[in-house]
Amino acid sequence: MHTLRIDAGRLQGNLEELSRIGRLEGGGVCRLAFTEEDKRARDWVEAKMRALGLAVRIDRIGNILGLRKARREAPPVLCGSHTDTVATGGCFDGSVGVLAGLEVMETLNEAGIETEVPVGVLSFVNEEGARFQPDMMGSLVVRGSLDVDHARQIAGVDGITVGQEIDRLSFAGAADFKRMPIRGYLELHIEQGPLLEKNDIQIGIVEAVQGIRWIEYMLEGAAAHAGATPIELRQDAGFVAGCIVQLARRLSIEIEGQRATVGTLRLSPDLVNVVAEKARLTVDLRNPDPGRLDEAEARLNQGIEEIAASERVRVRRATKVNVAPAAFDPVLVNAVDQAARGLGYTSIRMTSGAGHDAQILAAACPAAMIFVPSRGGISHNTREYSSPEQIAAGANVLLRSLLAIAG
Ligand code: GLV
Ligand code: MN
Ligand code: MN
Question: Cα(292)–Cα(297) distance, rounded to whole angstroms?
């Protein structure tokens, strides 16, 4: 069993095949959640699961679970991730975890290994949250923190609801994974940051994931002539929006561990010679420390109030995502550590900068993550890349740690 390895060529072939779905010219993929491309990728994953002899079930939000038979019926040990992407996504974010999970199942099949308790792959729906918020929607439903009927009512950035798309594209099954007992959940993912590459390390043993808040701000001032309106008479929503961008950067510098990003900004009427009447923007706040995250949000809101008041611009805000920092299960983290050591890979323990389904599940079952390096630390970018060897190393760690937990 100690010589058991995944087939790196087969895993790479599958990654290439999947990355043809939603492929963008010039590289990368666009498989925004609950779109046709997303559905085609999910159908592809489901077909693979069936071909591997897994018992496949799909829940009402569209999560796909493929379970392998075991010596006894018991809560399963699962691995997985997501295949949806941001609009300018790479081919590795999420897909690596799902396809490595399938590769592990195939490796076990070929070796004729029957585990003590079932193992399986869980492919979550809408992890990215780029179109429909909150992100990590599928895992929130599994954890029991988001009701499917409520999620179906959520409108996306294009005004279409989750429920409309689920029905139009037949995402849903009849299963219910809510609070399903899970013995352990392991997620292999690309790092999406520069740490592993910079230190020439093969495996990241993820101990924690930082907290995430997404806040949307709606600013309302008054449209005015760009040439004729004196500065002191303006109620310029665009000016306030620009100040928020600067404020976010300042918080990132001044608060320890803080990251603050304005990722969307739309002005209206969005015309060259009109002072913007309205602005709609989002701020993504992240910090491993919940107290500092609170501090960042409080300072952000206070700063915005002050700038807006001086410009006589009205501010409304809505919290779209509020995910607490998560600490992973020490037993599972150790299993990953042992697996990496046993395979002779270099490794370090680290905290994830990105959000993950494992972070959501961590509140419901033991969970842990395995990272592999990202070239240049780049992700959420079509140029995202991890080599076949790097991914294979991560998949072998996944295989070994999964077996350690599943017996
Ligand atoms: C998901 O990729 C996130 O961290 O936003
Ligand atoms: Mn991801
Ligand atoms: Mn992502």
Answer: 9
Contact by Cβ (8 Å): 124, 189: no
Which of 31, 125, 135 most suits a substitution to test ligand 1, by most atoms within 8 Å of the C-beta?
Answer: 135
Nearest alpha-carbon partner for 362 in 186, 169, 244: 186
Instruction: List, in order, residues 6 or more apart from 65 with CB less than 8 Å away.
Output: 56, 57, 58, 59, 78, 120, 121, 122, 123, 175, 177
Is 167's pLDDT higher than 60?
A: yes
What are the pLDDT digits (tens) for 32-49? Answer: 999 999 999 999 999 999
Nearest to 81 by CA among 130, 108, 45, 106: 45
Tokens of 154: 């959520």
Give 94-150 as a DSSP string.
THHHHHHHHHHHHHHHHHT---SS-EEEEEES--S-SSSSSSSHHHHHHHTSS-HHH
Tens of pLDDT, residue by residue over 392-405, are 999 999 999 999 99
To test the pocket of ligand 1, the residue of 352, 380, 381, 384 to mutate (highest count of ligand atoms within 8 Å of its CB) is 380
Where helices occur in 193-261 by DSSP H, the ranges are 195-198, 237-254
CA atoms within 13 A on the CB side of 17: 14
Q: In which residue are the tokens 């072939």 written?
A: 13
Tokens for 226? 């760009």
**Using CA positions, which residue lies closest to atom 3 of ligand 1?**
355
C-alpha 60 – ligand 1 centre gap (Å): 23
CA–centroid distance, residue 85 to ligand 3 (Å): 6
Q: 204: buried, middle or exposed (CB in 10 Å: 19+, 13-18, 0-12)?
A: buried
